[in-house]
Amino acid sequence: MSKIWMAVFAAGILLLSGCSGDQAEIDETDHSNNEQQPEEVAQEQNDSEFIYPLTGISAEAEVNGRAVAVMINNHPLARQQSGLHKADIVYELLAEGEVTRFLAIYQSQKPAQIGPIRSARDYYIELAKGYDSLYVAHGNSPEAKKLMDSGYIDSLNGLYYDGTLFNRVSFRKAPHNSYISFENIEKGAQEQGYDMNKAPSPLMYLNEEEIEQLDGDEAANVKVSYFSRETFNSVYEYDAAQEKYKRYSNGEQTADYETDSPVLLDNIFIVETEHQIVDNAGRRNIDLMSGGRAYLLQKGTLREVNWENIDGKILPVADGEQVGLIPGKTWINVIPASVGLEDSVSYGS
Length: 349
Prior knowledge:
Shape: globular
Number of domains: 2
Distance between the termini: 27 Å
CATH class of the largest domain: Alpha Beta
Oligomer: single chain
CATH superfamily of the largest domain: YerB-like
């Protein structure tokens, strides 16, 4: 089946912290009402020669702008999050214990407020590096600190900007109350001399004819389990009217704190890979290089594929060829191979 590279003309986008840097004094100022609403990106395909590289959605002009990858807290006390619904791509991986965190990658949209921000881990840094992102976190593990301090990735760490670029809101308690505005991300990048103009390389997208030919098992409701804790399970419900997936955590729909706008997704990619506990704090090594089995959800169907690390990105592959994505937003769940796809994922109509 032929694939369409949608960037021919595009110019160039916790419960257990184990990290002492997550602890900081609370700024009692509530910044939640200061949001400036950016223009929404049109969610249609057309014949435009310009597209957003991480969504495949048409743009009105040449697309520039570096990707920004932000560590977002997924503790129950951090929900609902801010700005998550505007991310082009979200990775969900385990941190310590059975707690997941999000790496939200932004390029096509710039939410006014993002958070709560959480601390860095080395494997999230590797994923951010794959998109040549500016990496944003608040605190770090020892391994993540080495990578950031060495200049391996351009980064902004809330440990050094608490109360300046990063702000503490009053309606949540530390470590679930650190936020940053996109304006302050750009301000911090400018202060550090980071180049923010180059867009990331585009992903591969299906055209309308290829989308119509999609097949697989019917999967209008899909549950992804991380061990036995319902708190960190993800449920995806396909809305046929919108032709998008809604996401739920512990029975609550994932939506924006300020606007209540839901997270709506076009591709759900669930991959299994080896996880290893490496220290007494419960920190992990997660194999993001070897490839393996995966499920891909698109348009209410599920099919088994494989995943490969292609230039630092976790992408679907079938029969030795890369599988195209539906233009829109993508969520990637990374689950332990010790649990496995069959035991972690349940689905039906």
